[in-house]
Every structure is written in structure tokens, then in C-alpha cells.
Design goal:
The structure is a single chain. The chain has 130 residues and is α+β, with helices and mostly antiparallel strands. The chain folds into two domains: 53 residues, no CATH class; 77 residues. Helix content is 25%, strand content 38%. The strands form two sheets. A five-stranded mixed β-sheet has the order 3-7-6-5-4. Strands 1-2 form a two-stranded antiparallel sheet. The chain is globular.
Length: 130
Amino acid sequence: MASPNQLQRNLRIRRQTRRLEVSVRLRNKRTSKRPGRTGPWNTHATRETVVVDFRFADYFERKVLRKRPYLKKEWCVAVVENPTRWERQGDLRCRFWGPVPELGGRYLRVVTLADKVTILNAFPHRGFKP
């Protein structure tokens, strides 16, 4: 049993970190009872939970959200997780594009650092063509 101080600390850490639980379906995981052998035996789909910590740069929270108050962090995370297209920039950053139904189906461009976890910038991209 955890002590009350540890429980308070864990609650504080959970509030401070932005966690997103993503349910991932693993398709056709093939296993066999015999080691080293895989095949169509025991074919089944399993579900496992993957926890991804997305961070938001100070620039994003101070400047971008103030400049574009209609943006939501959930949209940015959704675009990074499931982009229509992504590419690396020359300065070790990554660009992600994805449609956001709440923006009238327009595409949102999200820029992250090289780790693809720290979100730096986001804006609706007017001229994007998938």
C-alpha cells in the first residue's frame, strides 16, 4: 500500500503530465506454442494500451494559443498521431498535416521538434492539397 505522501505525489505528477492513452489494435498477431515458429496457428487480434506523453513548447502555450485561441491541443495531438502526410523540415523539425472536422474540414499543420513528441506550432494550412 502506498503512503499518503506517495499518493499525493502521484496525483500531482498525473496532473502535470499530459498523457494520452491510445488504444492500439494489433492485427493478426501470430503466435505458436513452439519457440521460433510462427504461422496461422492461434491467430487473434489483441488490444494493448500505449501511453504517449505529448509535450507542448512554451512558445506554443504562450504565443500560438494566444494568437489562435480557436485551436485545441487535442486536435494537434490527433494530427500528429494520425497524419495525412508528414515530412521533415531542414532544421530537424517535423511537419504533420491532417484534416480537422471542427475547422470545417480544413487541414491543420502541426510542427514538432525532432522527437515528434514536443509540439511547437500549429495553424490551419490554406493551400494544402493531399
